[in-house]
């Protein structure tokens, strides 16, 4: 099964801007890998909350559409809220 996530690049980075994104229903994320520049992105929490419950979300290649450009990635790490069913941050690696 393939997953596609629509995202936008984010220009503001840091703790304060990430908190503002989470409060607005967005999830901050980063895409990184060897030999490529890291890309900071954001996407809607509702787009990720249900698909991240599937086991193959963590083992297959995902497609992230960033500003109209498709990027193949794999999930490296997911940070979740301590007791709420919320995703706080996701690290992706270039596939």
UniProtKB/TrEMBL annotation:
Pfam families: Ribosomal_L25p (PF01386). GO terms for cellular component: ribosome. Residues 5-92 form the Large ribosomal subunit protein bL25 L25 domain. It comes from the Bacteria. CDD domains: Ribosomal_L25_TL5_CTC (cd00495). Keywords: Ribonucleoprotein, Ribosomal protein, RNA-binding, rRNA-binding. InterPro entries: Rbsml_bL25/Gln-tRNA_synth_N, Ribosomal_bL25/Gln-tRNA_synth, Ribosomal_bL25_long, Ribosomal_bL25_short, Ribosomal_L25_dom, Ribosomal_uL5_bac-type. NCBIfam families: bL25_bact_ctc, PRK05943.1. This is one of the proteins that binds to the 5S RNA in the ribosome where it forms part of the central protuberance. Part of the 50S ribosomal subunit; part of the 5S rRNA/L5/L18/L25 subcomplex. Contacts the 5S rRNA. Binds to the 5S rRNA independently of L5 and L18. Belongs to the bacterial ribosomal protein bL25 family. This is Large ribosomal subunit protein bL25. It comes from Shewanella litoralis.
């Amino acid at each position: 099964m393939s997953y596609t996530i629509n995202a936008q690049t984010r220009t503001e980075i840091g703790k304060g801007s990430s908190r503002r994104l989470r409060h607005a229903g967005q999830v901050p994320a980063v895409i990184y890998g060897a030999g490529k520049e890291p890309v900071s992105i954001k996407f809607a929490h509702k787009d990720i909350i249900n698909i991240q419950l599937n086991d193959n979300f963590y083992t297959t290649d995902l497609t992230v559409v960033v500003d109209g450009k498709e990027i193949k990635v794999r999930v490296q790490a997911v940070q979740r809220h301590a007791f709420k069913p919320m995703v706080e941050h996701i690290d992706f690696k270039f596939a």
